[in-house]
Specification:
The complex is a heterodimer of chains A (190) and B (81). By secondary structure, chain A is mostly helical. In chain A, 64% of the residues lie in helices and 0% in strands. In chain A, α1 crosses α3 and α6 runs antiparallel to α7. By secondary structure, chain B is an all-alpha fold. Chain B has one domain. The chains are: A mainly alpha (190), B mainly alpha (81). The complex binds zinc ion.
Chain lengths: 190, 81
Amino acid sequence: MKKVDDGPHSWLHEHGDYLYRFAMSRLHNEDLAADMLQETLLAGWKGFDKFAGQSSIRTWLVGILKHKIIDHIRREIRGRNLSEAVENDPTSAYFNSNGSWSDAPAAWKENPEDLFSNEQFYKTLESCINKLPEKQQIVFRMRDITGEDTETTCKTCDVTSTHLHVLLHRARLALRTCLNIHWFERGNRS
Amino acid sequence: MRHACKKISQLASDSLDRPLSLLERLKFKLHLSMCSHCRDFDHNIKLIHKVTAMMHTTDYGQTRLSEKQRQQLHNNLNAIK
Ligand SMILES: [Zn+2]
C-alpha cells in the first residue's frame, strides 16, 4: 500500500543523508554524489509501482543508487577509453628475467591501526594510490577501499575476473614499492 | 627457485580476491617457506589491504548533505516532476 506522503521529497528527507553518504564513499565527489542521489529519487518515483514492498524503501533506493553509480563509472571508463592491455606488462620492472625480485621486499613491522591513525602515512598512501594508472586506480579503490565484490567490480569496469586479478596485482606491486620509497625507507617509521 | 617469485606474487595478490585452488595453495605455501622475499611481500600487501579497508569505514561516517544541496535537490525535484 502506498502511503500518501511517499515520494521523492519525503525520501530525500528520510534517506537523503544515508544515500548521499553511500554515493560519496564510492564517488568521492560532492556534486556527482548529489546528482546520483537526484537521479535515484526520480527513478524511484518513476518506478514506484514496481516496488513490491518486500524490502524497505531504503534498501530499494540503495539498489537503484548502486546501479546508477555502476553505470556512471562504466560510462566514465568507456568515454575516456581507459583500457590497459594485459600484454604490456609493467610488473617486469619489479623482477629479473628469471622471475626473482629485482628489489627484494622487506617486511614492514608496523601494525595497521597505527599506520591508519598516522596522518602523514595516510597522506602518503593517498598520494601513492593517486599515482596508479587510472584503470588500476578504479579497480583498486572499488575492491580494496570500498570493498565491492569481484563480480560488481568486473561488471562495472568491463573486465574479466582474470584481467581484474592482473590489474590488482599490478596495483599492489606499485603501491608496495611507492610506500616503501616514500614512507618505510625514509625513516618515517615510528 | 622452482616457482619464480613473480608468479608467487600474483598468487599472494589473488589470495586477497579469491580462494586459491589446492594446488595453488601448496605451491604458494611451499615457496613462502623457502623464500623470505615473497613472505615479506605477502606480509606487506596484506598490511596495506587492512589499512585501505579501514579507510572506507571511517572516511564518510560524518558526511551529510549540506542545507544548500538539500534545498537544491528539493527545487530540482519540483522542477522535473
Ligand atoms: Zn619468492
